[in-house]
Amino acid sequence: MRNTIKLILFSILLSWKPLYSQAGSDIIFCLDNSGSISDVAFNQMTVSTMKLMEQVLKCNRDNRVAVVHYGTDYKDMTPSLPRIYIESNFTNDLATAQTFSRRLKNGDHFHDAVNLIGSALDHYPHPDIVSPQKTLDKHRDRPLVIVLFSDAERANGNLSSGSYLVNFNPPNGLHEDNAFVAFTKFKMDRNAKFIVVHVSDYSYYIEAAASIASRGGSYNGPIEQYNDDPDHNLLPRFYLNKTNFALTTTEIAELSNSICKMNTAYVDFTYQTRSCKTPTGFPIQVNGNYAIPQGASIVNFQISLLDIATSTMYPTSATVNFPNPNEFEFTINQADLTNPPSGQYKFIIELVYSLGGNNDGVHAENSINSPYDFMYCENLRTNTTISSPAAKFTKPKDKEYHIDLNADPNNTKSMLKEKVQQKNIQISPNPNNGVFMVLLDKVRSGSLHVNDINGKVVFEKTFNNEKEIAVDIHSLPSNIYMIKVNSGNEVFTQKMIKR
């Protein structure tokens, strides 16, 4: 039985990926219809867009997509002006989303196209939106992602046949804020993210397009810097410089993964496995990336050890630091460990945030394919007294861990002296989908409570002469829950992660 549980847990750990919040994004695919785009090039755009659509609609059923063409000429309309054509409103129906064809021609003015997209989002039917669909019904609280396919130059020509990534109206010299004003407003006022797929081999065009792209991705080349840049002129950028518009399988996977994470809540990190055969060396550095929805605030950011053998969670007291926007790092000293026994552990990072008065959370493990991150060995333990923000733990000779309640100002159950015996209860599997077993060792009678991160009891059950207790909270949100078993004057607790 125990071996089976370990195998199940092991398979979960290997397959567990960073989790995203379920709030969907609105994604606009903006396709260059200018005279420099051949039928072959547009077909490449079409295939790449369809493949991306399929992946982003698959990763989150609440995502929605729309296709917008931009150019200057439509049928017999005169004079030649920057125009857009909206294929359909935002939709999560793949067949509808993938039904589109080339609509415009000639000039290339992406900066002006973005302003027209703004009119559509604001429900202003601008005369230069030449499609039957004049508006885009974006939910106010949804993240907005704009994916551009273009071969545009930075600024060259005129209104009818010119090629302009940036503002056509002067001044639009290098490094001037006015050149990028539409993108600045979208990033600041609409919390929009830009991904740019760009066919060009001229450095000034590349740098301008990379500056339009939002921060993230893997591009670390030069960008055109300007003072008002909402991304603070930082790298990397969501920019792909290519010789054609045919995205590779790897590029499709990387871009769709980025879109699925972009502007939603997520945590992602990597860490090099350490074993007892090599010097452990404290402090340990763990670095990664995160995001929370616009308007949310961080409630808790914690790194813990998950015992692979027992599925027991050992929170650390390491403090998170934020070296750059959307980046985090933990420096773990030996004193930050809450007396884990010798064994193999995975690092688990938990991020809890508050939005609109409600708490939500995401978590992640190391993304490399390794059965463990950290092997903790008895002969490496030098401290017998460990301090943490919640309580002071001392290790007596009998190896039971006693919590000093006076050291915990938030503990309200002073009538009990809690004895935490690490192997008296186990949770399997952990993490799980809300359906799991609580395995009892020496405890035979008492009560079980499941508390959410606010301390609210969401499940309770009394038991008598039982070895296992089945729990089903699959309908509750993905989050961190505390499992608490009361037996006489003893309380046993474990953290549980619902995916």
TrEMBL record:
The keyword Cell membrane does not apply. Residues 1-23 form the signal peptide. The keyword Signal applies. Pfam families: Por_Secre_tail (PF18962), VWA (PF00092). Residues 26-259 form the VWFA domain. Keywords: Signal. It comes from the Bacteria. This is Por secretion system C-terminal sorting domain-containing protein. The lineage of its organism: Bacteria, Pseudomonadati, Bacteroidota, Flavobacteriia, Flavobacteriales.
